[in-house]
Specification:
Length: 107
């Protein structure tokens, strides 16, 4: 689950567009592998600088490709601060359409 303050952000068109563009960029680079282990396919676009109530409105943090990393679920969970027991929220899920394009699941 997204933390409450971040929910509007994760539902925003700006983030969806940014995330999809980032995923497509990673697919072009290495087929969309996890940027941490380079073994699994990426699953989540992670913010290297964690989103907080202070930076949630700062596009230099929230929508900056330099602050993003494509990670598989396992690597992402290892980074969760509360012991890695969180599962991905729906805002981080995507699927493939008939043309093989990655599309985010609707909320
Ligand atoms: Zn990984």
């Amino acid at each position: 689950m997204a933390r409450p303050f971040a929910e509007a952000f994760y539902n925003s068109a700006a983030w969806r567009k940014c995330r999809t563009a980032y995923i497509n960029r990673r697919i072009a680079i290495d087929g969309g592998l996890c940027e941490v282990c380079h073994r699994e396919l990426g699953y989540i676009v992670h913010h290297k600088i964690w989103l907080t109530e202070e930076n949630i409105n700062d596009p230099e943090v929230t929508l900056n490709a330099d602050n993003l990393r494509f990670e598989c679920l396992q690597c992402h969970n290892l980074e969760e601060p509360d012991g890695g027991r969180k599962t991905a929220g729906r805002e981080n899920q995507y699927t493939f359409d008939a043309d093989g394009q990655i599309v985010p699941l609707p909320p």
